[in-house]
Write the structure tokens for this entry.
Amino acid sequence: MRVWSSLAAPRQRTIVAFGVVILLVGAAVVITSSDDGEQAVQTEADDPTSTTDESTTTSDVTTTTTTEVPTTTAAPTTTAAPATAAPPSPPTSAAPPPPPSTSGSLDMAKVLAFAKSGSGGTAPQTFTGANTCPAFTNRASDAGDDSARDIGDWYLTRYCDGVYRAVLSTTAETPALQAAWIRMDTGAGGCGGVDRIVIGWHTPEVQGRGAVIATPGCDQASWDWVEPAGFPVFNGAWLQLDFRGSAVGNPGAFDWRGYVQGAGESGSAIDVVPNSGPEHFVV
Ligand SMILES: [Ca+2]
């Protein structure tokens, strides 16, 4: 009371009152500033909504990017077919050989040597047909026109098993036999028309040997040794040739002639039947 009383002078009271007013105004300002700060914090708390909107927008952009249609790749260019290579020219050596010459006549000495060269060591064969059918030809005797080894009885028979038997029986067994054969014209071609030679001969051991030779041409280079023929030996005069139809091409009909050659005979001395022209045989 003394302080207040001491300050109770009018001027001093005014100063103290002014100071109290200033303090009151300062406190009010501080309170107001605190309210503004709370409002600012609340405003920022409302912002998450706008943040979400931005995220959505970003997602839409991403989706648009991933669904973009890729540029169509151009179809590959079709590979061009390789050019066809030209066929190689055939070698000159592949050209077919010229057909054998069919003009002229057979050299029977060469045919006999050719037959012997192919049948060396081959056992004689005897074909055994059972019955003659359908054709059997029994010719009349060939009255002697040869002074030696004259063919007496002769015929050609085809058996049911397809085996042919040609008989060129001579009237004597001397002189020694060189060879006996028949020549056959079975179709187109052949040396002078002769396609097959069936030939038989005696060996030094008096064993018969025979062979079927194909003669498509007159040149020996065209000949073929087909297979052995039967030339059985019964005695020196009976000459018989057996051969299979398959070895001569199984012809249904053919022309033929038979020959017997004695040692030392050549040319017209070799007996032949028929005396003129071929014999025609029809199965
Ligand atoms: Ca012929």
